[in-house]
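The records we work with from here on pair a chain with its fold. Taken together, the tokens spell out the fold as the letters spell out the chain. To see the layout at work, look at the sequence and tokens printed below.
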Amino acid sequence: MEHKIIDIGVNLMHRSYNQDREQVVERAAANEVSPLVITGTSLRNSLEAARYAGRLPGKLYSTAGVHPHDAKSCTDETIKKLKQLAIQPQVVAIGECGLDYNRDFSPRDIQRKWFTEQIGLALEQNMPLFLHEREAFSDFMGILKEQSVQKAVVHCFTGTLPELKAYLEMGLYIGITGWICDERRGKHLKELVRLIPLDRLMIETDGPFLTPRDLKEKPQDGRNEPAFLPHILQAVSRCIGRSVEEVAEATRKTSEEFFGL
């Protein structure tokens, strides 16, 4: 494993990492996973992520945004504060933001309003977007088109062939997680990943969630972490029939250019 790869999405401020956060970062680096991009999912969480990432410049970066689950807590003040975060050098994208009609933790009209506001912030700051979409494809796509979004990654893509084609036609980037390692739910993804051009593909753990189901040594607590990203890289390589080296280099380069690392 001498190829450095980038985890573009890890929820490193999640409480499951409270006991050993530094070790998680060290284990990642020991497995050639560096830098890490810490996902911000609420204002508070984005503040924590930026503060933590600021301690290790070049090794950690973060995103600043409000997840659709949390949209109901958004105000104009939230957007102002996200803007202050966005100008910090370690903050490299706006998000995680988008629409989630699967859980509906926030009312749909509220989700749409604050998704649109965060897109506006990203465009104003000339920053990429880190996106979340679940069972909300047509509204999600409608907003992206309406706002003429150019630079965004659809994080943790698990969608359909028509959805993937629509994203790629729009010039969006695709983030693939350990979902592809799931022999039950990930079957269709093994096929679809072949259609993603290497210069649009990025990989991520989404830790502590989505632990690859086929890991030889399962973590005792079931927690996913960036050190497992090489396992996901290998799965993606097998699916697309390219060497691990080629996929490692391509996804790293794509991630560096996308986030401006």
About this structure: The first helix runs from residue 21 to 30. The two ends are 22 Å apart (CA to CA). The first strand starts at residue 5 and ends at 10.
